């Protein structure tokens, strides 16, 4: 093509339509609809949308490439703008298998290096389309990020109920924003200030969602060294704040210097220091931390700096923060246990994970899908017969409207228990139900004191949830108090 040639109106229209698809959320219905409009004639049963789209794009590019590789430099600035996403999509899709193999190797071997065949070919193709070396390297890093995000969101959060689909869309937007063009031009290197709050009951997959976001951050590709600036598998760190007594939380977060307090016999790096510049830190069970720790964390989020205990040197924290809790944050705020300012600084985005009962109410076949996935995880291979047996056992042991208070984690336990014993201990669930009736009756009769009421409730939850920690989280009590009430209930004549 001659320099600064203009695209035909037909080509320009085609490129603009493809551009919209390229920048759309791949988990959105709008994108699926746009693909059908452009590539519907090429779609076959079982064919992925992208494959049909690639067929259409290939035909158009082959025609344009007939007189030599058609590049950005051949076009006016306006037409180059239209063509750019199509070139990117084309190169990205032709290297999907190479990107997947690279991601798998990086996950298992924790390396940052990229093999020459993939890097040189992919970058070479972009350069031939008119991208500079630096731009090509940046787009290689973006392709790598897109593929990771797609994989971790799709594979990590299974489910076809509407609420799961909308969760996957929300997670994608959390990584790339809802405007991918803005992400591409400005925000790709500025996401660390966008913190996220993940809400939802215990076992709904908040940890899983955080890991999907955390492993999908942007990591620059250093093309002259043919490696990434960091390994994505190392760039996600999680700390469960409910595991540590108050005295240790500070040290686990901020670190300490040798001699800072009795027992500080070595220097210790906290999670903030260990988190990489391109990384994400999950502060799990954020609803458990005290006000003084909230103030210190707020400072980290606002000023991006922290000081280890016993040190005078401030250190910089450059990562992104995700916080998660299964506690009702607004109630904690109302009770003065969670600071407003900290809450607002944490939630550039707040995502609520759906409960398993909501998912099953929307799409009853979600249970079979999840059981299939869990059986595959546990056996190492898919086995429809075993999956069927587990589903039969669940149907035999539980009422159809069983509320799954422990969500997917409880379902995981149920599948394990059925694999071990052939049944999911309906006795436990039934006794929880019986207790619940008895407790309600006792409340109705007005014969419970405050302490017996709390004890009855804790015991009921304990039967359902199985651990003191879970009961403590649900009730907002600390673990020792929850334990005390659970045992008190057993000794007190009451609604057992
Ligand atoms: N949609 C899902 N698809 C596949 N597995 C899931 C899904 N949701 C949750 N899980 C699995 O359920 C278990 C519990 O998930 P996770 O630990 O992420 O829950 P959580 O919401 O963080 O719980 P908690 O609040 O108690 O920490 C994990 O083993 C996770 O792999």
Explain what this protein looks like in three dimensions.
This protein is an alpha/beta fold and 496 residues long. Among the domains are: 157-354, P-loop containing nucleotide triphosphate hydrolases (Rossmann fold, 3-Layer(aba) Sandwich), CATH 3.40.50.300; 356-424, no CATH class; 428-491, no CATH class. It has 23 helices and 9 strands. A 5-stranded parallel beta sheet has the order 4-5-8-1-9. Strands 2-3 form a two-stranded antiparallel sheet. A two-stranded antiparallel ribbon has the order 6-7. A hairpin with a 4-residue loop joins β2 (221-222) and β3. 36% of the residues are buried. The structure holds adenosine-5'-triphosphate. Adenosine-5'-triphosphate binds next to α10 and α19. Residues 157-420 form the Sigma-54 factor interaction domain. This is Flagellar regulatory protein FleQ. GO terms for molecular function: ATP binding.
Look at the structure and name the CATH superfamily of the domain at 157-354: P-loop containing nucleotide triphosphate hydrolases
Helix/strand structural class: alpha/beta
Give helix % range.
55-70%
Unreliable stretches covering 5 or more consecutive residues: 489-496
Biggest pleated sheet: 5 strands, parallel
Placed side by side, the strands forming the largest sheet appear as: 4-5-8-1-9
What is the CA-based Rg, rounded? Answer: 27 Å
Please report the total strand number as a whole number: 9
The gross shape turns out to be globular
- The name of the CATH architecture of the domain at 157-354 is 3-Layer(aba) Sandwich
Bound molecules: adenosine-5'-triphosphate
Strand content: 5-15%
End-to-end separation in angstroms reads: 83 Å
Global mean pLDDT: 87
Q: In the CATH hierarchy, what is the class of the domain at 157-354?
A: Alpha Beta
Number of contiguous helices: 23
């Amino acid at each position: 093509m001659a320099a600064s040639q203009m695209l035909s109106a037909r080509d320009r229209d085609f490129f603009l339509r493809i551009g919209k698809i390229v920048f759309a959320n791949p988990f959105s219905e709008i994108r699926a609809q746009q693909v059908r409009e452009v590539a519907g004639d090429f779609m076959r049963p079982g064919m992925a949308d992208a494959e049909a789209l690639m067929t259409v794009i290939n035909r158009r590019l082959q025609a344009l490439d007939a007189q030599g590789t058609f590049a950005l430099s051949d076009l006016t600035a306006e037409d180059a703008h239209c063509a750019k996403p199509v070139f990117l999509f084309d190169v990205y899709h032709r290297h999907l298998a190479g990107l997947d193999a690279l991601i798998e190797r990086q996950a298992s071997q924790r390396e940052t290096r990229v093999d020459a065949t993939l890097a040189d070919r992919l970058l070479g193709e972009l350069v031939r389309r008119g991208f500079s070396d630096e731009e090509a390297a940046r787009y290689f890093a973006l392709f790598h990020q897109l593929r990771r995000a797609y994989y971790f969101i799709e594979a990590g959060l299974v489910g076809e109920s509407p609420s799961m689909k909308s969760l996957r869309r929300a997670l994608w937007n959390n990584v790339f924003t809802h405007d991918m063009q803005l992400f591409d031009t400005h925000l790709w290197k500025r996401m660390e200030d966008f913190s996220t709050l993940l809400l939802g009951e215990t076992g709904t997959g908040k940890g899983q969602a955080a890991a999907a976001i955390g492993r999908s951050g942007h990591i620059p590709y250093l093309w002259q060294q043919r490696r990434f600036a960091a390994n994505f598998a190392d760039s996600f760190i999680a700390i469960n704040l409910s595991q540590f007594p108050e005295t240790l939380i500070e040290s686990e977060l901020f670190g300490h210097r040798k001699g800072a307090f009795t027992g500080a016999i070595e220097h210790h790096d906290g999670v903030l220091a260990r988190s990489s510049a391109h990384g994400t830190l999950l502060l799990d069970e954020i609803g458990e931390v005290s006000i003084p720790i909230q103030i210190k964390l707020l400072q980290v989020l606002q000023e991006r700096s922290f000081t280890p205990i016993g040190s005078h040197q401030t250190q910089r924290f450059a990562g992104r923060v995700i916080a998660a809790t299964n506690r009702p944050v607004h109630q904690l705020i109302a009770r003065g246990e969670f600071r407003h300012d900290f809450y607002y600084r944490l939630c550039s985005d707040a995502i609520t994970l759906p409960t398993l009962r909501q998912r099953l109410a929307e799409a009853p076949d979600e249970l079979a899908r999840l059981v299939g996935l869990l059986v595959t995880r546990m056996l190492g291979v898919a086995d429809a017969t075993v999956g069927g047996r587990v589903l039969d056992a669940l149907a035999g042991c539980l009422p159809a409207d069983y509320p799954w208070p422990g969500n997917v984690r409880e379902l995981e336990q149920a599948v394990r228990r059925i694999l071990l014993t052939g049944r999911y201990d309906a006795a436990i669930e039934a006794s929880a139900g019986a207790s619940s009736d008895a407790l309600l009756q006792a409340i109705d009769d007005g014969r419970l004191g405050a302490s017996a009421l709390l004890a009855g409730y804790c015991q009921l939850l304990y039967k359902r949830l199985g651990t003191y920690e879970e009961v403590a989280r649900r009730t907002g009590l600390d673990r020792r108090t929850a334990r005390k009430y659970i045992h008190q209930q057993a000794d007190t004549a009451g609604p057992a």
